[in-house]
Structure formats: structure tokens, C-alpha cells
Amino acid sequence: MNFIKNQSIAVLFLIFSSNVVAQTFSPSSGNDFWRKVRFGGSIGLNFGNGYFAGSIAPSAIYPINEYFSAGAGLNFSYVKDNNYRATVYGGGVLGIVTPIPQVQLSVEFEQLRVNREIEYYGITVSDDFWHPALFLGAGYNTGPVTVGVRYNVIYNEDKSIYGSAFMPFVRIYF
């Protein structure tokens, strides 16, 4: 009787241990994708005499290989001045080329929804529209931080929400 009891315990132990082994992580299980994703973004804050501007722009990139990365991001900004108020939100996609470790080239397309109100002599004018931008950029890369400048190739001085086609940037990805 002890022999059967010991054999039963041994069989149960083998079945249980094989299930435990079956639950171990395998790199080909698809979870490897999320281990390679790098998260980052930016936060901005600016205020002064009757002026406030704040923004948050989280993003994530996936390294396709040692030279190419692709990603996406979100953007939210709020601006309030004496007679001006704007809420800007949207998203974009990003492609990064790193020909050598110190140089980062990028292309970004963003589509932003702009809701703004301007008050002129007691009359409030509202404006809601979509604003696209296509940036080509170049920066100096120092590991997780890249500092550079980008240029909006579809910039239109009369329609843009940006003050200039050129914009400096700081990218941080962990």
C-alpha cells in the first residue's frame, strides 16, 4: 500500500512540475516586443504676466534594428493669455534613423485638433480645426537624450499654430 501511495505522489509531482515548466517565459511568446519598446516624451510649462502654457506629450518607440526605430505619441497643450485661450490635442507617428550612434535623423507627422477662442472688444470668436505638421529633424544623440532641431516642411505662416517652421527639441527615451 505504501508503494502505491509513493508512486501516486511521484506521478502527481511529475505532472505538477511539468505544468510549472510549461508556464516559463519563452522569448518567442510575443512578450519580447514590449521589452524592446522605449517610452519617453516631454512636459512643458510656461507662464508670465497673464500668460500660461502647459503641455504633455508621451510617446513610445520600437527599435526595428540598430539603425531604425518607429513609434507613436500623443500631445495635449493648453494656452491662456489675456484675450486668447486654446486647447490642442492629437497624436502623431515618428520614424528615427541613427546612421552613427551620435547622430539621429527623424521624420514626424502629427495631426492636432485646435480649439481656440479669441476675444476682440467684448466679442468672442471661436475656431476649431485640424492642423497637420510634417517635421524633418536632426539631433545629437547621447544615449537616452537627443537634442536637435526639426523643420516643418508644410509650414504655412498664415495657418500654422507654430510661430516658426523651425523648432528645437529634446527627446528622452528610457
Automatic annotation (TrEMBL):
<feature type="signal peptide">
    <location>
        <begin position="1"/>
        <end position="22"/>
    </location>
</feature>
<protein>
    <submittedName>
        <fullName>Alpha-ketoglutarate decarboxylase</fullName>
    </submittedName>
</protein>
<keyword id="KW-0732">Signal</keyword>
